[in-house]
Amino acid sequence: MNADATAHGTNTLRNAGIPLQLDWFETIAVNTPAAERRAATLTTRRSVKKEWQAAWLVNAIRCMDLTTLAGDDTEDRVRRLCAKARRPLADHIMEGLGLDRLMTGAVCVYPTMVGAAARALEGSGIPVASVATGFPAGLMPLDLRLAEIRYALDQGADEIDIVITRAHVLDGNWSALYEEIAAMREACGAAHMKAILATGDLKTLRNVYKASMVAMQAGADFIKTSTGKEGVNATLPVSLVMVRALRDYSHETGYRIGFKPAGGMKTAKDAIAWQILMKEELGNPWLSPALFRLGASSMLGDIERQLDHHVTGRYAASSRHALA
Ligand SMILES: O=C[C@H](O)COP(=O)(O)O
């Protein structure tokens, strides 16, 4: 195991991966109704109000991969997003909360936008995450997918969000999945790798557990639910199964793996629900950007609106909190 300093200065052990262990997941059974029931109770048993709510929302910003992954992205849009990542809340909200400094966990963009993001974030300490490997479908030859990782790194990416070949999961070809992810991890070098499982394409929660385990065995630093482009993106039952797999892997190996729900999360309520999941299933260490990221292109606006209300007692029109 090698010690690794994350972008936020928290020391953690980086997952080196292990040889493929089929017996850790081959016979796994997932009780879907029980997972759904457990996920449903997460948000009903706790009522988070006032200062506590504000603190959870500020933490959500610290853990957010502020994202733009659209076909009409431009360098201008990316620069505006980076400005928002540096200063996610209006001055009066920062003052009202008594905060001096706050920034997002990362900015997440397409590979051709990495250069613009890296320049705009220079000196901020905010990492640039790039999607790669034929995002979102991953249906490209492996050598081109690996070359895309190298391109993004060359442009200045600090983190790489890879996509897996869903067919390997649907066909139960675990060794092909393992080999692919291990090759990607090697191409990432020192950059942390998040493995996007595209859970909405994987058909069963059992497949979600198995794909999570293979990704971690192959050396993923984070497992991530979705690209934001599948028909169904991040859900709490899927996330519960992934964090249980993560907990099992950590228990077996001692490595702490990060979790990134992504896709379709838009509200402050979502931000709190996923943090409750992390706290209840894994504990406080998984509420820091080193081990938890919320991948979202349009959640920050609602969080800012709720924090504005907390500080001023009034709801501002959503147009006042433009972008993200
Ligand atoms: O990785 C992040 C996701 O692509 C963001 O999805 P979203 O646009 O639905 O928030």
Keywords for this structure?
alpha/beta; TIM Barrel; eight-stranded parallel beta sheet; two-stranded antiparallel ribbon; 44% helix; 12% strand; disordered N terminus; binds glyceraldehyde-3-phosphate; Deoxyribose-phosphate aldolase; Aldolase_TIM; deoxyribose-phosphate aldolase activity; DeoC; lyase
Measured as a percent range, the helix fraction is: 40-55%
Low-confidence stretches: 1-11
Bound molecules: glyceraldehyde-3-phosphate
User: How many helical elements?
Assistant: 12
Mean pLDDT: 93
How would you classify the quaternary structure? Answer: single chain
Shape: globular
Structure class: alpha/beta
- Largest sheet entry: 8 strands, parallel
Distance between the termini: 38 Å
CATH top level assignment: Alpha Beta
CATH superfamily: Aldolase class I
Strand order of the largest sheet: 9-8-7-6-5-4-3-10
- The H-and-E topology, N to C, reads as EEHHEHHEHEHEHHEHEHEHEH
Describe this structure in words.
With 324 residues, this protein is of the alpha/beta class. It has a single domain, classed as TIM Barrel. The chain has 12 helices and 10 strands. The strands form 2 sheets. It has an 8-stranded parallel β-sheet. A two-stranded antiparallel ribbon has the order 1-2. Helix 2 crosses helix 11, helix 3 packs parallel to helix 5 and helix 4 packs across helix 12. It is globular, with a radius of gyration of 19 Å. 49% of the residues are buried. The site of glyceraldehyde-3-phosphate (G3H) has 13 residues, from strand 10.
